[in-house]
């Protein structure tokens, strides 16, 4: 049995949404209760290591420890989801401590901690009464989620004062919860509260940036029931940060839910220089790129941004399909083709269960031509 777990207070306060900061000790107590179980002990042995991963097969637990907080009530540990057919993930790791290679039906996953805070009265009432069907357009305060690889909180390697954080803001409602909504990939040195307050001001002040515009529109139309702040990586190396950001944005470039307007990483800096948004000698820090784009829109209200850079390799359809279908939770090319073939005989609900999709909405988006259009 492992010892007790401690969540680093500095990193928790730096990364967690403001409403969750005061729940630090309660999250820690729930975590320590969990690791006393057999699976919790197994999970913790990997979760506390920066290189720790868990090998997972079908019908085994996906290693995401989800903690639910409803209003001021004590938090609870949610039931673990199990790996289903068709679940995919991406990992550059090919060698493991055990020396065993991955089996065909085996995936490697990083243990995550995900905290969900419900504060809207409609959601609180529905949760307490066990109602699963509500009018989400009437939700005033979206649920706040904070998701992070566990080792960043359990055994941090860097200081909040000298580190860069790569993150996603994901938002939406319905079947897109909690990871399949619109998303924006960003990097920052600020804490979550400061960076998000900057985004909120930009949203309220009519910012023309796609992320701010879409969030504003969806909020006005009752289209947001959750906001997931998902930490993707932490590093003190600007080169490592830019490399990770570029890979993440490029890998989702054809995803219609992506709200980034320019490439990530050094390709984004090259785009800004080549299109005259900054001088060739200027090297902006990551947090300065949104203001640069805002300034461009103010100076060129009718012109808009120059055509975004698209990597040459995206013109290779096989490569593009591999990226589109290779992300965590996405459908494989074979599943996409099967959905289209089965649509002649079966309902979306039947297809969902037959091909192992994540939910019915994933099937419907394929049939409506909203996703996976590169897959023929």
From TrEMBL:
Q: Can you say what this protein is called? A: GIY-YIG domain-containing protein
Q: Which InterPro entries would you find in this protein's record?
A: GIY-YIG_endonuc
Origin: domain of life: Bacteria
The organism named in the record is: Shewanella canadensis
The residues covered by the GIY-YIG domain are 162-261
């Amino acid at each position: 049995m492992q010892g007790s777990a401690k969540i680093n207070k500095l990193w928790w306060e730096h990364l967690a949404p403001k409403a969750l900061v005061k729940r630090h000790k309660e999250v820690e107590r729930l975590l320590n209760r969990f690791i006393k179980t057999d699976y919790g002990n197994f999970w913790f042995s990997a979760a506390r290591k920066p290189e720790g991963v868990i090998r997972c097969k079908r019908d085994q637990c996906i290693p995401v420890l989800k903690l639910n907080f409803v209003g001021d009530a004590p938090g609870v540990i949610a039931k673990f989801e199990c790996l289903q057919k068709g679940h995919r993930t991406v990992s550059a790791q090919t060698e493991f401590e055990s020396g065993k290679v991955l089996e065909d039906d085996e995936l490697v996953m990083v243990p995550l901690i995900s905290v969900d805070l419900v504060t809207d009265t409609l959601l609180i009432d529905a949760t307490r009464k066990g109602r699963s069907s509500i009018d989400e357009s009437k939700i005033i305060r979206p649920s706040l989620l904070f998701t992070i690889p566990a080792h960043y909180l359990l055994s941090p390697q860097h200081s909040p004062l000298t580190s860069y954080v790569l993150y996603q803001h994901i938002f939406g409602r319905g079947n897109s919860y909690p990871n399949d909504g619109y998303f924006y990939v960003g990097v920052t040195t600020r804490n979550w509260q400061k960076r998000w307050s900057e985004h909120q001001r930009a949203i309220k002040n009519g910012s023309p940036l796609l992320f701010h515009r879409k969030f504003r529109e969806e909020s006005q139309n009752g289209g947001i029931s959750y906001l997931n702040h998902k930490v993707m990586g932490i590093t003190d190396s600007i080169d490592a940060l830019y490399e990770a950001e570029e890979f993440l944005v490029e890998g989702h470039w054809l995803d219609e839910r992506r709200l980034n307007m320019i490439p990530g990483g050094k390709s984004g800096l090259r785009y800004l220089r080549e299109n005259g948004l900054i001088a060739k000698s200027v090297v902006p820090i990551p947090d300065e790129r949104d203001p640069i784009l805002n300034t461009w829109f103010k100076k060129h209200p009718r012109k808009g941004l120059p055509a975004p850079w698209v990597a040459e390799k995206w013109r290779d359809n096989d490569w593009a399909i591999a990226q589109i279908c290779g992300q965590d939770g996405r459908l494989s090319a074979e599943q996409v083709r099967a959905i289209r073939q089965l649509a002649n005989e079966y309902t979306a609900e039947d297809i969902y269960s037959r091909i192992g999709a994540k939910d019915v909405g994933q099937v419907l988006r394929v049939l409506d031509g909203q996703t996976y259009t590169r897959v023929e």
